[in-house]
Design brief:
CATH class: Alpha Beta
Protein name: Cell division protein ZipA
Shape: globular
Strand content: 15-25%
Radius of gyration: 15 Å
Number of strands: 5
Strand order of the largest sheet: 2-3-1-4-5
CATH architecture: 3-Layer(aba) Sandwich
Helix content: 40-55%
Largest sheet: 5 strands, parallel
Oligomer: single chain
InterPro entries: P-loop_NTPase
Distance between the termini: 37 Å
Number of helices: 6
Pfam families: AAA_33
Order of helices and strands: EHEHHEHEHHE
Keywords: Cell cycle, Cell division
């Protein structure tokens, strides 16, 4: 049986990973899995700092990997709105698809800090519950760990640059 395609994203905080993931999932008729939604459901009001996020997101890794592999093995495409913003995070994604030899696509949304900060400011207005974590200070802390994907990592990468539609 043909395996599903795993699509996942790299991009700074505020780059548009969630927006793109929703659009691509709809276009592919894929299962969409959102880290933010899982964390909010399983750990309501528990994530107030970057350390809280790291701890709780880490708890999702093992069960999410098995779930995604099961869906891909059924032949269904999966779009993951989980960050692939560091080499370590991308290694986790590699384990998901490589262990079952499923196809993948890493979409890198390459936007400037200024564009990302504008998106974050807009998101704070639209989602007031995120105002405490969607700040320039949090952006700076998270971005300090950001590493753009490189060709030598061996992923099938699609780049969405600042001049692409849907900024």
């Amino acid at each position: 049986m043909k395996k599903g395609l795993l699509t996942f994203f790299c991009g700074k905080m505020g780059a548009g990973k969630t927006t793109w993931s929703r659009e691509i999932a709809q276009a592919q008729n894929a299962v969409l899995l959102s880290e933010d939604e899982w964390l909010a459901s399983l750990y309501p009001h528990a994530i107030k700092t970057l350390d809280d996020y790291i701890e709780h997101a880490g708890r999702l890794k093992a069960p999410m990997k098995k779930l995604v592999q099961s869906i891909l093995l059924s032949g269904t495409n999966v779009v993951m709105d989980f960050p692939a913003n560091t080499v370590q995070q991308r290694a986790w994604f590699r384990g998901i698809f490589s262990e079952i030899q499923a196809p993948h696509e890493l979409i890198y949304i390459d936007h400037s800090d200024e564009t990302c900060l504008l998106h974050i400011a807009k998101r704070r207005l639209e989602q007031p519950e995120r105002a405490a974590t969607d700040t320039k200070e949090m952006f700076d802390r998270v971005t300090a760990h950001f590493a753009a994907p490189t060709a030598d990592e061996g992923f099938n990468i699609t780049v969405i640059a600042a001049t692409s539609p849907r900024n």
